[in-house]
Write a structure and sequence with these properties.
The protein is of the alpha/beta class. The protein is built from nine helices and 13 strands. The strands form four sheets. A seven-stranded parallel β-sheet has the order 3-2-1-4-5-6-11, with helices on both faces. Strands 7-10 form a two-stranded parallel sheet. α5 packs parallel to α7. The protein is globular, with a radius of gyration of 19 Å. 46% of the residues are buried.
Length: 314
């Protein structure tokens, strides 16, 4: 019988989001090649998949060319938290730009579909609320976050130019704040920071007055959105916002984490970092219409699952 399994490459597959995507793609009956250089990815995220005969792990840096026979490529490789992407900003922007070039080159060579995991950071500190895909953004090109923000913007440019010039089958999703099990406990992102501080009864540190807003998406919802995007007709390329439009202040998040953990933590306010966005909320009408997608896991339920995971990290 002819094997109808797709062979799918996931760059950054041992990371927080990548590991959940690999797991889901295997569950759906595909072969998965997980590529990671383990800068922020962790083998513990995918160790439970190593016994699966249809899962292959390759230690490789996406900034270097890669050859493989695959049907689809999900390009997730890039540090995604400020702590990690500012640690080596030159490496970060090389990962976004050279990584995109290498994955697009591979897609061209083997005629594969390729999805770019872009980010809400392409909108910068937005002056439009909520953010629609048509908004060009308000990004500081010379700030401390630029290595990530501009790297991802350039990657989108490369995807569009490869599509226009070489007719590559591309998909672009813009991912909004995502959380869930397998987040790195020290990645510096607000959900992991608050949960770890609360579980250890340390002060919960809020930058600024806590009035800035974010929209928090559970990782399973994101994975569903990416898979649906990859499956759309060839003419639909995006970009598409994938995020949960329910908006919370950072202070509200801290209070919810304290409540769910039963922590004795107090809230401590610190100065706001440079270029920290004040508002972040996706307009997801395009995802609803084109992907028939809507997030199903709300903050209270998602935090409960994430807190249970972080308890195992202590």
């Amino acid at each position: 019988m002819y094997n109808l399994k797709k062979r799918i490459l996931v760059s950054g597959g041992a990371g927080f989001i990548g590991s959940h995507l690999c797991e889901r793609l295997l569950k759906d009956g595909n072969e998965v090649v997980c590529m990671d250089n383990f800068f922020t990815g962790d083998k513990s995220n995918i160790v439970h998949l190593l016994q699966n005969p249809y899962f292959e792990l390759v230690r490789h840096d996406v900034t270097e060319p890669f050859l493989a026979e695959v049907d689809e490529i999900y390009n997730l490789a890039c540090p995604a938290s400020p702590v990690h992407y500012q640690y080596n900003p030159i490496k970060t922007i090389k990962t976004s730009v050279m990584g995109a070039i290498n994955m697009l080159g591979l897609a061209k060579r083997v005629n594969a579909r390729v999805l770019q995991a872009s980010t809400s950071e392409v909108y910068g500190d937005p002056k439009v609320h909520p953010q629609q895909e048509s908004y060009w953004g308000n990004v500081n090109p010379v700030g401390i976050r630029s290595c990530y923000d501009e790297g991802k913007r350039c990657a989108e440019t490369l995807f569009m130019d490869y599509h226009r010039q070489h007719h590559i089958a591309i998909k672009i999703v813009r991912i909004f704040n995502t959380y869930g099990p397998r987040m790195h406990p020290q990645d510096g992102r607000v959900v992991s920071n608050f949960i770890m501080q609360a579980l250890q009864h340390k002060d919960i540190t809020i930058y600024g007055e806590g009035n800035q807003t974010r929209s928090f998406q559970y990782v399973d919802d994101l994975v569903e959105g990416m898979i649906r995007m990859m499956a759309t007709e060839k003419s639909f390329i995006g970009p598409v916002n994938i995020g949960n439009p329910n908006e919370f202040t950072i202070l509200q998040l801290a209070e919810q984490v304290i409540l769910q953990t039963g922590s004795k933590s107090k809230i401590k306010f610190l100065p706001l970092p440079q270029d920290d966005p004040q508002q972040r909320k996706p307009d997801i009408e395009l995802a609803k219409k084109s992907l028939d997608w809507n997030p199903t896991v709300q903050l209270e339920e998602g935090l409960s699952k994430t807190i249970a995971y972080f308890k195992t990290c202590l």
